């Protein structure tokens, strides 16, 4: 078999790096082809998981192996070069490059296999029990070939910017594969699909970085460019999570495998980050032999489950007492979110309901008082009457009249505003509460600014229920602060789209947060060792939030597929972020039957016991929904619509009328 190179591979030169080696070069315990060989080894002593790293032809650069070692692996980067790395002037000369590779890289025969076998045995002596292999560029070819030859040793293979990888190469591969092609790299989807088709080849990953140069994760990556550095870190951290989620060898089985996460081409609507496609395998928690297949849960983005990486972050968090304000992880999260939103201080709490209610209580010190809010809002419909109970305030729900009810306007607010002392029969308006996003739709920035001016002119406070304001910022392509700076207080949930297990942060002025902290204790919401929860929330903001644009693209893909193949099914609210509102009236599909059929495909929606006349359902996408789940959903609806058309079924709702129960998108 010959090696074929891409133009990007052959013409991209290495860059200088300031990274310092933190490991050590060690001789391999056994000679290979009669020659003493060495390996660069880095990682925690006593690590149970070992990685063999095959570096690219520019020699040793410690960047990727060092980051992998910091994720809990003992990494062995084998010295493959007989006479040193390739001379720089060979790059771009196919004849010289090909000859150098064939004569200087131990590629033919069993030399690579022998080197890897010795390196694995050396890692086993160090205490490693499970093994994985990474190959950069042409090294991906070698890694796949080696994992195939040494069947049963490696639980997974990963390849940043792979070269010389094709479908025939993976015919006999017996473990999952993760590939991360860059610009001008060949299409690797057929390779991933071939691995998936084996029936054991999940979880596999394909993430394409069309705006990153070949070699950006290795010696040719210029990490002085922030976008390249961030993209490279994403790839390396995804590989680490991929390997961790495969588990140790004793737990690995076909039954335990989970659906593949396949990245898609597309750009994120997120300011300040590289325009890459990125989906982490941590979207689904580790499985064991006895675990059932995971569910793609479309009921709410609150139903995501923590990954193994999140548990590791929690273990490393501080363990101080938050009631005494002594926990470093909590303080760090509060300051971080306050800084992101342009506010002075923050308060970490257990839920968005709590942060909303604390905001109202700290703002409304004495009755009589009223709050104006959208009649669809969470604070009005889904917080158990908390405003009346906690703050002794009246709520005046306002109906949005403009743009088909898309969002409240300053005109809507003005019509319901109660001026102080004008009428003793009415509670004066003391606070206006907005929600962004609401039912998945984004409130325009200019309207927020208009309502903000209106509130300030009248001396009333403006609060934002920003449970999903993270989604709004991504959809608008702006910073959080651009949205949140208009508000006196903002509640930001971290357990919805951001993906943390629990929590919400309230931000505002320092004195306001001091009052809210006091009321939190009064409400029984003071918590002690909350550092682990705060640390993982911080991690999710940094690692999950940047992937949110991909979730929005999946939501649009789902909506388009349902309308195209749903036999009359309609999307009732514009899909602007991560929510799809589906109405099956006129499609001939019963909602309860759809729910049952989807469960057969390990997909859950919230309508298994829906009334016979209910036709509407809310679908919420998040970072643990894969493209495969979306495509399966569309396929089920398409099949049911075709059957309904053939049989003349009409779902018992011939008039096409919707259920009288409206579906709102706040929960």
Automatic annotation (TrEMBL):
<comment type="similarity">
    <text>Belongs to the threonine aldolase family.</text>
</comment>
<dbReference type="InterPro" id="IPR001597">
    <property type="entry name" value="ArAA_b-elim_lyase/Thr_aldolase"/>
</dbReference>
<dbReference type="InterPro" id="IPR015421">
    <property type="entry name" value="PyrdxlP-dep_Trfase_major"/>
</dbReference>
<dbReference type="GO" id="GO:0005829">
    <property type="term" value="C:cytosol"/>
</dbReference>
<dbReference type="InterPro" id="IPR015424">
    <property type="entry name" value="PyrdxlP-dep_Trfase"/>
</dbReference>
<dbReference type="Pfam" id="PF01212">
    <property type="entry name" value="Beta_elim_lyase"/>
</dbReference>
<keyword id="KW-0663">Pyridoxal phosphate</keyword>
<dbReference type="Pfam" id="PF01738">
    <property type="entry name" value="DLH"/>
</dbReference>
<dbReference type="InterPro" id="IPR023603">
    <property type="entry name" value="Low_specificity_L-TA-like"/>
</dbReference>
<dbReference type="GO" id="GO:0016787">
    <property type="term" value="F:hydrolase activity"/>
</dbReference>
<dbReference type="InterPro" id="IPR015422">
    <property type="entry name" value="PyrdxlP-dep_Trfase_small"/>
</dbReference>
<dbReference type="GO" id="GO:0008732">
    <property type="term" value="F:L-allo-threonine aldolase activity"/>
</dbReference>
<dbReference type="GO" id="GO:0006567">
    <property type="term" value="P:L-threonine catabolic process"/>
</dbReference>
<dbReference type="GO" id="GO:0006545">
    <property type="term" value="P:glycine biosynthetic process"/>
</dbReference>
<keyword id="KW-0456">Lyase</keyword>
<feature type="domain" description="Dienelactone hydrolase">
    <location>
        <begin position="39"/>
        <end position="245"/>
    </location>
</feature>
<dbReference type="InterPro" id="IPR029058">
    <property type="entry name" value="AB_hydrolase_fold"/>
</dbReference>
<feature type="domain" description="Aromatic amino acid beta-eliminating lyase/threonine aldolase">
    <location>
        <begin position="297"/>
        <end position="585"/>
    </location>
</feature>
<dbReference type="InterPro" id="IPR002925">
    <property type="entry name" value="Dienelactn_hydro"/>
</dbReference>
<protein>
    <submittedName>
        <fullName>Threonine aldolase</fullName>
    </submittedName>
</protein>
<feature type="region of interest" description="Disordered">
    <location>
        <begin position="646"/>
        <end position="667"/>
    </location>
</feature>
């Amino acid at each position: 078999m010959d090696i074929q190179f891409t133009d990007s591979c052959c013409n991209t030169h290495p860059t200088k790096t300031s990274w310092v080696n933190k490991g050590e070069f060690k001789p391999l315990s056994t000679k290979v082809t009669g020659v003493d060989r060495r390996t660069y080894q880095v990682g925690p002593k006593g690590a149970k998981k070992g990685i063999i790293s095959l570096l690219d032809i520019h020699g040793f650069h410690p960047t990727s192996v060092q980051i992998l070692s910091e994720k809990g692996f003992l990494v062995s980067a084998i010295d493959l070069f007989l006479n040193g790395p390739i001379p720089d002037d060979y790059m771009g000369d196919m004849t010289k490059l090909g000859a150098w590779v064939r004569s200087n890289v131990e590629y033919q025969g069993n030399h690579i296999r022998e080197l890897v076998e010795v390196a694995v045995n050396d890692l086993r002596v160090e205490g490693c029990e499970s093994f994985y292999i990474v190959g950069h560029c042409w090294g991906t070819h070698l890694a796949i070939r080696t994992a195939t030859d040494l069947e049963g040793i490696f639980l997974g293979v990963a390849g940043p910017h792979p070269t010389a990888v094709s479908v025939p190469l993976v015919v006999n591969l017996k473990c999952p594969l993760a590939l991360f092609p860059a610009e001008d790299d060949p299409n690797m989807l057929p390779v991933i699909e071939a691995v998936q088709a084996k029936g054991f080849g999940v979880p596999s990953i394909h993430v394409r970085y069309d705006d990153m140069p070949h070699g950006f994760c290795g010696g040719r990556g210029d990490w002085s460019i922030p976008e390249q550095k961030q993209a490279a870190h994403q790839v390396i951290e995804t590989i680490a999570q991929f390997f961790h989620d495969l588990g140790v060898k004793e737990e690995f089985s076909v039954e335990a495998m989970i659906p593949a996460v396949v990245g898609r081409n597309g750009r994120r609507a997120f300011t300040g980050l590289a325009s890459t496609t990125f989906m982490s395998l941590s979207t689904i928690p580790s499985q064991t032999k006895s675990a059932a297949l995971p569910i793609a849960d479309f009921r709410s983005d609150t139903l995501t489950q923590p990954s193994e990486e999140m548990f590791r972050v929690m273990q490393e968090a501080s363990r101080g007492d938050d009631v005494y304000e002594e926990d470093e992880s909590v303080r760090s999260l509060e300051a971080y979110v306050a800084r992101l939103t342009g506010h002075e201080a923050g308060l970490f709490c257990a839920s968005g309901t709590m942060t909303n209610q604390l905001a109202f209580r700290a703002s409304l010190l004495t009755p009589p008082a009223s709050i104006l809010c959208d009649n669809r809002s969470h604070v009005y419909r889904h917080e158990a009457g908390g405003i009346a109970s906690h703050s002794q305030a009246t709520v005046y729900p306002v109906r949005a009249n403009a743009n088909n009810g898309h969002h409240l306007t300053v005109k809507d607010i003005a019509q319901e505003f109660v001026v102080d002392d004008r009428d003793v029969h009415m509670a004066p308006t003391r606070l206006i509460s907005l929600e962004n996003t609401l039912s998945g739709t984004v409130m325009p920035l200019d309207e927020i600014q208009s309502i903000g001016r209106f509130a300030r002119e009248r001396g009333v406070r403006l609060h934002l229920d920003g449970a999903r304001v993270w989604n709004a910022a991504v959809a608008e392509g702006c910073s959080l602060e651009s949205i949140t700076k208009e508000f006196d207080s903002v509640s930001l949930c971290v357990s919805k789209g951001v993906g943390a297990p629990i929590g919400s942060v309230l931000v505002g002025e320092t004195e306001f947060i001091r009052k809210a902290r006091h009321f939190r204790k009064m409400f029984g919401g003071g918590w002690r060792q909350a550092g682990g929860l705060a640390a993982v929330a911080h991690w999710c903001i940094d690692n999950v939030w940047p992937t949110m644009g991909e979730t929005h693209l999946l939501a649009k893909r789902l909506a388009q597929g349902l309308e195209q193949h749903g036999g009359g099914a309609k999307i009732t609210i514009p899909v602007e972020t991560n929510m799809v509102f589906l109405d099956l009236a006129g499609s001939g599909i019963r909602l309860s039957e759809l729910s049952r059929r989807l469960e057969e495909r390990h997909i859950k929606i919230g309508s298994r016991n829906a009334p016979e006349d209910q036709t509407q359902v809310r679908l919420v996408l998040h970072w643990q929904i894969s493209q495969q789940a979306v495509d399966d959903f569309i396929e089920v609806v398409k099949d049911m619509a075709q059957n309904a058309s053939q049989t003349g079924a009409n779902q018992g709702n011939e008039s096409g009328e919707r259920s009288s129960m409206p579906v709102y998108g706040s929960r």
